[in-house]
UniProtKB/TrEMBL annotation, chains A, B:
This is DNA sliding clamp PCNA. Keywords: DNA replication, DNA-binding, Nucleus. Residues 285-300 have a biased composition (Basic residues). It comes from Rhodotorula toruloides (Yeast). Residues 184-194 have a biased composition (Basic and acidic residues). GO terms for cellular component: PCNA complex. It is found in: Nucleus. Its main location: nucleus. Residues 1-124 form the Proliferating cell nuclear antigen PCNA N-terminal domain. This protein is an auxiliary protein of DNA polymerase delta and is involved in the control of eukaryotic DNA replication by increasing the polymerase's processivity during elongation of the leading strand. GO terms for molecular function: DNA binding; DNA polymerase processivity factor activity. PROSITE patterns: PCNA_1, PCNA_2.
Amino acid sequence: MLEAKLEQAELLKKILDAVKELVTDANFDCSDEGIKLQAMDNSHVALVSLNLAKTGFSEYRCDRDMSLGVSLASLQKIVKCAGNNDILTLRADESVDVLALLFEAKHADRVGEYEMKLMDIDQEHLGIPDTVYDAEIDLPATEFARIIRDLKELGESVKIEVSKEGVRFSADGDIGTASVTLKPTDKRGRRPDSDGEDSDEEEEQEDDEDDEAEEPEPKEEEEDEDGDVKPQIAASGDEDDDAPKSKGGKKRKAVADSEEEDGADENGEDEPSPKKVKKESGKAKPAKKEKKKAASKKGKASSASSKGKATKGKKAKSGDEEKSMDVRINLQQAVALTFSIKYLSNFAKSTPLAERVHLHMSNEVPLLVEYAFEQGHIRYYLAPKLQDD
Amino acid sequence: MLEAKLEQAELLKKILDAVKELVTDANFDCSDEGIKLQAMDNSHVALVSLNLAKTGFSEYRCDRDMSLGVSLASLQKIVKCAGNNDILTLRADESVDVLALLFEAKHADRVGEYEMKLMDIDQEHLGIPDTVYDAEIDLPATEFARIIRDLKELGESVKIEVSKEGVRFSADGDIGTASVTLKPTDKRGRRPDSDGEDSDEEEEQEDDEDDEAEEPEPKEEEEDEDGDVKPQIAASGDEDDDAPKSKGGKKRKAVADSEEEDGADENGEDEPSPKKVKKESGKAKPAKKEKKKAASKKGKASSASSKGKATKGKKAKSGDEEKSMDVRINLQQAVALTFSIKYLSNFAKSTPLAERVHLHMSNEVPLLVEYAFEQGHIRYYLAPKLQDD
DNA sequence: CAGGGCACGT
DNA sequence: ACGTGCCCTG
């Protein structure tokens, strides 16, 4: 029996928008860790890996591992029936032949119940090799999307070159050549913008304990970002992509942290309670509600924007890194790889899911493009083209 | 070697939007005067003449005249990769087989470098005959666009009739007939602020100072407007690029005259126009405020205003008249001509480039439609249809 | 001014 | 699916 409650149906909408063109049918693998989806794209060139952590749900229960074979198009049709701010509950029983979806408007008095037939999909669960990446680039997702969109006009392949000086995306085609160069923002983790906001909140220390102090370090905030994070990121990219083991501090903090803290503060409330209100002031999740009214019309927005501000309380750094326009490059070794723009363009459809995107590259190895969000992440892998000239 | 820097990439975007449907490939003729483009439209019916003055660039250098054969579609693709506010630099070396474009975001750290292959286009450089136009109409570009757009729905041809009373655009087709009449705004530039939309040509009875009686002014203004003001309208069309030859002759009235007047305003008048001075003062004072308000509401406004000073550097008043919603008609002789709406509709794509458009007409002679902006202008020429019934 | 949503049309 | 135009918001 699976029962998972998502506070905002919008998340699922965005995920489906992001992935549906790459993958039309896939298994949602549910375990007590959360829900994962892993699949090759239809042309078997790229790999998509979605992870929704248990902690990303306001309620989560999965008695037994189960694989739900879903037609993404069908699921999308149904999910579109939910309001962006509806509370979405997924439910499946042992039979695994049907997925029930429940949409509840926040103000109640409107309930949608849907059932979707499931299908059998034989899933080739390919392990993703552990890789230590030579270059990691952390940039605004919109910037990445823009570059890819632009270059797509001129050619079919992008060459991505990373060096100390910056990242250079280039393409050429019939009409000419193009290149866009991004210079890294100041090396240090310093964020140029006003981090003042985050200060207002409570314990930044808290995260330490969550982290398990795997990395003993004094000034975690900036450090982890620039310094120690990269190995972790790579590590987390292993086959089960988010193995609970030694996950990167950064992600964990952003997600688990907030959740746990939530519970801690209020003694593990799973559901909305009056007290929550108080917490909300500081919390990320709550903030969304506020947003909602504003967002109601727009439909989108809330998550990302609220994140930046609302999240700040906890990991100041996490909030910051999410919102800034910085370009960060972490480089072990210069890298130059060529990829099919078409796929990158598809990956970029995940832009609405996160403020920033992380590119991980090593020569000769598939590129990893990651969009991390509060409840989990989407990762894409794409093998480079051979001719890197 | 050509190197030209445009402060706002947006200008080039707009130009390409405006022209690309009429002309798909054309030579950009670069000289130390600036950059010009002249071409027949694809069906060889209309003529397009673009002029970007050297002074329109924040930096301009052209050692040697050169003709860059450009595919406008390709150029547009590339220019779309620039942000509207990016600084755009065009560069071409002697080889003239490639045009380099550099886009720099104002805040830096993002640089786009593009190269476009050039082509050989044998250009028939047709001289544009000097013409003294019998009728000149100066009206808001949006108004013109609106009329053309509306009439296009009903027929394929527009008849444009200009008389003392105003301009009348009419068309007819299967479903019926249509006509829009614009009455010239009150002589001295009075403008009713209350005009609702551009759509309706308001037949204001504002002959008097209805707007703001606050300004009691001598009648002479009106007359002089009628009498000698028209030259001013012409004046806004700067010295002509298109027909550099013998402007002296017939053109003198429309063009040369205006030039002189320019000077006249500043110092002494070359030609008798005693009232002129007075007129200016009159104009300047009363209506100004109102107009401004109206313009702001429209939203576009500002940009073109600069033209006034850049182009002519005349009085402040000129700036004012540029942004107003006034319709000015300068008439030597009544004119009635018929044109293909399709072309006018294409010309109207230049609307984003300027607040106002100037129509110059004489019987039996091609219509000249001009959009003047800070950095230069675009002119279109279109021969009338024969049946002027 | 830029970005994002939305409805539209190709 | 994608590009476009329009409107609104930050």
